Amino acid sequence: MVNPFDSKVKRILNVGDKELSYYSLSALEDERLAKLPFCIRILLESTLRNCDDLAVPKKMVELILDWQNTSKKDTEIVFCPARVVLQDFTGVPAIVDLASMRDAVKRLGSSPSKINPKVPVDLVIDHSVQVDKFREPDALQKNLQFEIQRNHERFSFLKWGANAFENLSIIPPGAGIVHQVNLEYLSRVVFNENGVLYPDTVVGTDSHTPMVNGLGVLGWGVGGIEAEAVMLAQPISMILPECIGFRLVGKVNSRVTSTDLVLTITNKMRGIGVVDKFIEFFGPGVAELSIADRATISNMSPEMGSTVSFFPIDHVTLRYMHLTGRSEELIEITEKYLKAQNLFRDYRDRNQDPEYTRIVELDLSTITPSISGPKRPHDCVALSEAKRDFVECLRSPIGFKGFNVSEEHRAKSVSFVYQGQQYRLTHGSVVIAAITSCTNTSNPNVMIGAGLLAKKAVEIGLTVSPYIKTSLAPGSGVVTLYLNRSGLLPYLDKLGFSVVGYGCTTCIGNSGPLVEEVAKAIEEGDLISVAVLSGNRNFEGRIHPMVSANYLASPPLVIAYALSGTMIIDWETEPIGKVNGKEIYLRDIWPSREEIDHYASKYVLREMFIDCYSIVTEGSADWRGLQAPKSVLYEWDESSTYIHNPPFFDSMTRELNYETVIKGARCLLYLGDSITTDHISPAGSIAKNSPAGRYLESRGVKREDWNTYGSRRGNDQVMVRGTFANIRLLNKFVDKPGFQTVYHPTKKVMDIFDAAELYRQSNTPLIILAGEQYGSGSSRDWAAKGVWMLNVRVVIAQSYERIHRSNLVLCGIIPLQFKPGESAQSLGLSGSETFSIDLGQDITVGREVTVAVENGTVKSFSALLRFDTETEVTYFKHGGVLNYVIRQTIDS
Fold first, then answer.
1. 108-117 pLDDT, tens digit each
2. Would the pTM of this model clear 0.85, i.e. be above it?
3. DSSP, residue by residue, 53-87
4. Is the N or the C terminus of the chain less surrounded, counting Cβ atoms within 10 Å?
């Protein structure tokens, strides 16, 4: 295809002795360019460069140039990301899908090798390590060995994928967390592809992919299905987003961390409402933030609700590129190219400020130390109010801020003996304290702050009770290098915060088992125990099934809460502990900003990044010893409980064959607000009495080898049984949390999977009724795939989180939305009715659809069809995006 803009906008840029080309935005000679947000300019550059007037129509350049008007009108554009990044929980099913697509292409009479990534794909194995061992000298080595032993089938499959598919690279287990590795190593910042320069852009199969926005790389999280489409050269269809300008002024005070800043921003933006929107930071306050601080903020984009939280590139970015070992040539190219494109930022120059949809301002000097919880990441609480807030949560009705503990039961305590000593647990006792996750371990300031606090605590004589599950899981090996070089690591070790692995551990639910005596005490007393972690997610049931209250906090505060052993402490008036009769307060051991800055400047060094990433693809001896087949088609093993050929393409034909009428559907689940993808498709441990547990047991898998749902996402038989298997799921059909529902024909209460199977036997299609923010949280595609496999054909909700709504469409599921002001409850729906829906032959974007109701108090109601683009309509007609790609591949 010929780019119609080549002759008009292609320009030469000389860097050293190299003559490079680029697609010049200024060559468009349009005065609107200077007012476009920087992130929108990047969308424009991609459209300009990839334009072929077919997949990327020429008219879209004008639509983006006119962003001030078109962004208010649900304007559809397409976007071609430069690369894709995966983690293993979501990456394994993506590669399984590609392998299955190859089988389908062959069955339909074409060459399977046509299914191949067309853009660079990096897969980082970081979600499979669990905290089995802690507070042991060799915990790191043992946990890595357990990880490879448990997951050898998955890892061998990934090795096959790296051999079988072009443009796919694997970062082995033990290297770090995908987003930190992406920030420090994988990101190109500016691509130089065959002498053509363009901005690095990325989509990833993890909702925290926007962390790289802190580096000035535009990227966001998508479902695995959408990522697969991008791999296979399909542009992303999207609505041109509004862009909120977030102006930062002032400086943070000395006791405030970047974690406090991001928790405050997350709470503020959730209150404003930024779902499906871009956020771009500007103002003189940004210049005061390091790239690590910016990345900490960008990381929590999904918790804010935004698609991205973008920081345009400036001189601070270039210094970070140097620190992290990028070549001087790349840094020079980056600066010259971005300045030529008017994409280089000076945050103190107000003349560079674009126009935004709306501007929000925050004075950094107003930030105070904070935590978030106990059940949602945007429920920010000032540290000074943390004790009062938790006590209030105990007495409040069950909800996001309540546990409904009776007054009589609030004084409950349970004694137990551990390692020969007696301890006592009460409501609020801290049982997990984890420095973990990409959000904070990428930031040297908070990690060094934690190390200095540990040093002061040890030197003053404070200790952490041995029953508390403490852990340190850095996002990359660089963290260990500078903590070790600075002499701080031994102090962390002494408090129990030994390195347990390099990966996403406690934050994803891979916290491993509690101390057995602690678990029994919690169960005996029905106690509201607490986990404190430096993560980004604290949804119910995510961190550990026995821990009801989970709080996000900075790494130093994680240690502080471990030292205190309880959430019920006023840090200003109550001591953290006593040493030789002397009361020690948090202020006595809190490190100063000057101390932290001194350590960071002295011990966080460029050569550490170079040394760490020079061996990042090697892996351990166990990894290198894994055998993998070398073949175009994967040889499926029916006995495997990890990797299985999914049924997505079994009935697919070359011709389109889609249904627009859903008749006689029954409601599988009746759900409330803020149902997360953790509720829909949990990533953590598999319950003994669950359908997935029974399935594994029937296949002869021992209980200790069940692993987690996240690790078994390559097996559809496990995952369909794990859909809605969260023990905290609240379904209005039953009176207690869990994975049960009512089978309406007999009114019998049973497991959700079993009810769905009975409906399937009678060819009864299913719907789900839900409230607001349905599908919030992680970008996991199994939350849509599993629902499709349960034979759910329609979801009707009050509102959707962006990624999950898209995933539903990409699986061929119809998302409907109640009209404003209406809900299942306001319409008088009990969920026991029978529903019928006719989309009609002329399916159009955003139309209203009539839902017919039998045996209810209403006969019908209208709902909005949430196919948001014409491309989504096309995908639905094909039965999903992957079916579309297969047909396109066969016809090519």
1. 999 999 999 9
2. yes
3. SSSS-THHHHHHHTHHHHTTTT-EEEE--SEEEEE
4. C
